[in-house]
Amino acid sequence: MVAMDPSAGLAPGTADRLLEALDPEQREVAVALRGPVRVLAGAGTGKTRALTHRIAYGVATGVYTPTEVLAVTFTTRAAGEMRTRLRALGADGVQARTFHSAALRQARYFWPRVYGGELPVLTESKLPLLGNAARRNRLAADQATLRDLASEVEWAKVSNVRPDDYARVAESRGRSVTGHDHATVARVFATYEEVKRDQGRMDMEDVLLVSAALLSEDERVAAEIRRQYRWFVVDEFQDVSPIQAALLDLWLGGRDDLCVVGDPAQTIYSFAGASATFLTDFPRHHPGTTSLQLVRNYRSTPQVVAAANQLLAGTSSAGVSLRSQQEAGPEAAYTEHPDEVAEAEAVAARILEMRTAGHPMREVAVLFRVNAQSEAFEEALAARGVPYVVRGAARFFERPEVRQAVTLIRGSARSGAGSGEGLLADVKAVLTGMGWNDKAPTGRGSVRDRWESLQALVSQAEEFASRDGADLAAFVDELDRRAAEQHAPVAEGVTLATLHAAKGLEWDAVFLVGMHEGMMPIVYADGPAAVEEERRLLYVGTTRARVHLSVSWSLSRSPGGRSTRKPSRFLTGLRPRVQSDRVTEQRASRTRSKRGVAHCRVCNAPLSTTAERKIGHCEGCPAGYDEQLFERLRAWRVARAADEKVPAYVVFTDLTLQAIAEVRPADAAALLRISGIGPAKIEKYGDEVLELVAGGA
Question: Which domains does the chain carry?
Answer without folding.
Answer: 14-105+208-294 (3.40.50.300), 124-195 (no CATH), 333-583 (3.40.50.300), 610-695 (1.10.150.80)
